[in-house]
Amino acid sequence: MAAPESGDGNNGAARMVTLISSDNTRFEVEAAAASLSQTLQLTILDGGGGGGDGIPLPNVDSATLSKVLEYCIKHAPAAANGGAPNATAVDRAELERFDNEFVNIDQSVLYSLIMAAHNLEIEGLQSLVAKKVADMIKGKSPMEIRRTLGFPDPTPEEQAEMNAHMLEYGWAYE
Amino acid sequence: MGEGLSERPNRKKRAEVEDGIPDDALVEVLSRLPVKPLHRSKCVAKAWLELIDGPHHRKKLPHTLEGFFFMDKESYSSRRNGGRFGFIDPRPRFVPLDIDPSFYFLMKRPEIKVLTLSDSCNGLFLLEHGLKSLTDLAISSAIPPRSNV
């Protein structure tokens, strides 16, 4: 559990905020975890999201949001410590293990996760997902990349351009 | 390798997906690729090509080697009188690069009589042109304007 970020005299009871997904599911999380999102941080600092209100997130569905929050809850304590002084090697190894496990997901989820991390501006998650996508792309041909990311099959013109490019950049395909 | 999606979304949804990855997020991905996969990625989609070849993200993405400028030994040793450059394009191209190793675009300026190479670094040339004692410096980019496929 995340330690409360500041001593607001509440004896350790962490402040909670409510987030509402595009399909109207409500998620209650600690403010410290939700604040990993740069987008939410200001609203939360302003006292938003508490009580019955909740912060609506019209671009994020509940499946994606619960995944995103899983990341935030896990990373919030380390972020609150500024990452460094209290983090032991064990803690860091545990976070790394969590991250690897976290992105071991279905491709269809990956795309929504890219979008959510981007919209919510969660820096750590953005680079984690980017790294995962880069790893997936690395050994693949352009066609395989398109399929991996769920792009539509190329039109004949696009296909012709791809072929021309493959001739010109032959060295990149060796 | 080809782990196709088990369930293909309909065409419209898929087109949205292709256009939908924001540039910033895409650059984050592409900047983590080694050179070869990066250049393979150019033909994944038009937007990707524009992003990789475009000028805005050059700092984050590795460049392709477009070619070499060279001076032969003779003109290098007499370079105080203005050497002649050549250009080698190592790749087969459908549209040849528009490169003028004589730097005509500089030479046609009336105040420039002789061009001499002083130094070069990271694709930039430091060229010296002089009229006897008067010496001015001109800096010119050796990176040709991008010619896209």
TrEMBL record, chain A:
UniProt key word Transferase: no
Pathway: Protein modification; protein ubiquitination
Keywords carried by this UniProt record: Ubl conjugation pathway
Span of domain SKP1 component POZ: 16-75
Classification via PANTHER family: SKP1
Family the entry assigns: Belongs to the SKP1 family.
Summary of the function given for this chain in its UniProt record: Involved in ubiquitination and subsequent proteasomal degradation of target proteins. Together with CUL1, RBX1 and a F-box protein, it forms a SCF E3 ubiquitin ligase complex. The functional specificity of this complex depends on the type of F-box protein. In the SCF complex, it serves as an adapter that links the F-box protein to CUL1.
UniProt-recorded name of the protein: SKP1-like protein
Automatic annotation (TrEMBL), chain B:
Ranges of residues in domain F-box: 21-57
PANTHER family: F-BOX PROTEIN INTERACTION DOMAIN PROTEIN-RELATED, OS05G0139200 PROTEIN
Identification of the protein by name: F-box domain-containing protein
Organism, as annotated: Eleusine coracana subsp. coracana
